[in-house]
């Protein structure tokens, strides 16, 4: 009977090797999550270097973002006043109170233009900062677009760079 049984039985073959490529859906998901984590970390590290936590850079940047978001709902005279005050605070933080706090009117715009990190034309385009906070509402009704350009021009002032030269 052994020989009869042996003729019908075959040895068990080994299993085929499991290929490493292509990976299964779980590995693709894990790779996508890992890539997203790396991209987010790089973005946050670059952002934190530009706007360090707890610094005036970050608080000024957040305030500018808030002004930009609320620009459509905010009256132009209030937006101009808030932006003017914020630009003054940024300038004082960058160069000190003695150099920036006493400037008003055209000398203030000239100083902004001379010290602007991106070379924005404050003397030509910054007039709404001087006039809109004090103008009647009917004159400032359509000035929001001009002020949004100034808000965008103020963002480079918030980036962490070397301090401006004190005179």
Compose a concise summary of this entry.
The chain is mainly α and 167 residues long. It has 10 helices and no strands.
**How many helices?**
10
Q: What is the rounded Rg?
A: 31 Å
- Number of structurally distinct domains: 2
Strand content: under 5%
Helix content: 55-70%
Overall mean pLDDT stands at: 84
Low-confidence segments, ≥5 residues, pLDDT <50?
A: none
**Structure summary, number of beta strands:** 0
| Amino- and carboxy-terminal Cα gap | 110 Å
Characterize the overall form: rod-shaped
Q: Which class do the helix and strand fractions yield?
A: mainly alpha
Helix and strand element order: HHHHHHHHHH
| Major sheet size, sense and barrel closure | none
Oligomeric state of shown chains: single chain
Describe the structure.
With 167 residues, the protein is mainly alpha-helical. The protein folds into 2 domains: 23-52; 56-158, no CATH class. It contains 10 helices and no strands. It has helices spanning 2-8, 25-50, 56-70, 76-95, 97-100, 105-115, 122-125, 127-131, 137-140, 144-158. The longest helix is centred in the N-terminal third of the chain and has 26 residues, at 25-50. The chain is rod-shaped. It starts with a helix and ends in a 9-residue tail after the last helix. The mean pLDDT is 84.
């Amino acid at each position: 009977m052994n020989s009869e049984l042996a003729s019908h039985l075959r040895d068990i073959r080994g299993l085929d090797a499991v290929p490493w490529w292509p990976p299964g859906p779980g590995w693709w998901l894990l790779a996508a999550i890992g890539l997203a984590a790396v991209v987010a970390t790089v973005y946050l590290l670059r952002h934190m270097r530009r706007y360090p936590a707890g610094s005036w850079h970050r608080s000024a940047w957040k305030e500018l973002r808030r002004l930009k978001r609320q620009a459509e709902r905010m009256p132009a005279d209030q937006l101009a006043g808030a932006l003017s005050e914020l630009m003054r605070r940024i300038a004082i933080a960058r160069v000190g109170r003695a150099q920036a706090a006493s400037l008003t009117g055209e000398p203030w715009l000239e100083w902004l233009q001379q010290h602007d990190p991106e070379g924005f034309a404050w003397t030509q385009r910054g007039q709404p900062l001087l006039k809109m906070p004090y103008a009647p509402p009917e004159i400032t009704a359509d000035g929001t677009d001009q002020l949004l350009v100034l808000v965008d021009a103020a963002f480079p002032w918030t980036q962490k760079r070397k301090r401006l030269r004190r005179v």
